[in-house]
């Protein structure tokens, strides 16, 4: 039976699902719900989560990233979203969610997310287009 543990990093939550040790062929699912412009979440992604790629833990993990902001829809028309970090937060959460959906390779979409979150830590999140270019994502063929 799987067990669930919850870890909280200020406003950034991580849901860890562990699979029993005797199921050696299955990967452990690690789900991270985060907000793209949250300093604590960006710091966790850049300084901690990235380590799973460096020490090759990604080979035993099914990493599930979920850009999830403190957002709500306008009840009058349901087409306008209001985000904690204003339009920039909504845009970057949507961009990252789209990248995850389009780029099925975790190494590729994590590289983009890492780049955006690194810029967010430095207060340069408006330069996100440089991250798109760095991962060679063809936005014309796979638009946002």
UniProtKB/TrEMBL annotation:
Alphabetized GO MF terms: oxidoreductase activity, acting on a sulfur group of donors, disulfide as acceptor
InterPro entries: Interferon-induced_GILT
Entry keywords, A to Z: Glycoprotein
Pfam families named among the record's database cross-references: GILT
Family assignment from sequence similarity: Belongs to the GILT family.
The name this protein goes by in its record: Putative gamma interferon inducible lysosomal thiol reductase GILT
Organism for this UniProt entry: Rosa chinensis (China rose)
Higher taxonomy: Eukaryota, Viridiplantae, Streptophyta, Embryophyta, Tracheophyta
